[in-house]
Design a protein that fits this description.
CATH superfamily: Electron Transport, Fmn-binding Protein, Chain A
Radius of gyration: 17 Å
CATH class: Mainly Beta
Number of strands: 11
Structural class: alpha+beta
CATH architecture: Roll
Order of helices and strands: HEEEEHEHHEEEHEEE
Number of domains: 1
Strand order of the largest sheet: 2-1-5-8-9-4-3
């Protein structure tokens, strides 16, 4: 096997942990959405999710102030809207209106669910100890929703520089965990 050096600035594309999501927040009755791909599960019960929200993003201060959000999981059908969402700031744009997305009232938080997304996770900030140093929020999932009519959700995964991979074949292997 021959291996070549890999640029450190592109390592994130090798380890991208999960599907691209759309993080919705709201402050003073104004909802916002940002595209997010740097997240990871931290705990099973209660479900804890860690995510990096850059302090340069409009959503950062909203999340830091309100301490709540919704992680919305889109499928490949929303890929173009997901990319457009990530390329415009919510400071100047109502992303729900400009992207043609539907905000739905959540049951536990003020931030809205995105109706067009396959699944939605209502979250509160559970830990902020890594926010000042790494922009890393630990979120507790309070309520989870999914569209049961979608039997094979194909999510998108960011590989860097505008390149995405779509979820493919599902396989089942023996496991001793139950």
């Amino acid at each position: 096997m021959t291996k070549s050096p890999f640029p450190l600035s592109k390592v994130y594309g090798l380890l991208e942990p999960g599907p691209v999501v759309m993080l919705s927040t709201a402050r003073k009755g104004r909802p916002n959405i940002m595209t997010l791909s740097w997240h990871t599960m931290l705990e099973f019960e209660p479900p804890l999710v860690g995510c990096v929200v850059s302090n340069r993003n409009y959503s950062f201060n909203i999340l830091k102030t309100t301490r709540e959000c919704v992680i919305n999981i889109p499928t490949v059908e929303l890929a173009e809207k997901v990319v457009k969402c990530g390329n415009v700031s919510g400071r100047d744009t109502d992303k729900f209106a400009s992207l043609g997305l539907t905000p739905i009232a959540a049951s536990c938080v003020q931030a809205p669910l995105i109706d067009e997304c396959y699944a939605n996770l209502e979250c509160k900030v559970a830990d902020t100890r890594l926010v000042n140093k790494y922009n890393f929020f630990v979120l507790e999932v309070l309520k989870a929703w999914f569209d049961s009519s979608i039997t094979d959700p194909r999510t998108i995964h960011h590989l860097g520089e505008g390149v995405f991979k779509v979820d493919g074949e599902t396989i089942k292997l023996p496991s001793h965990m139950k």
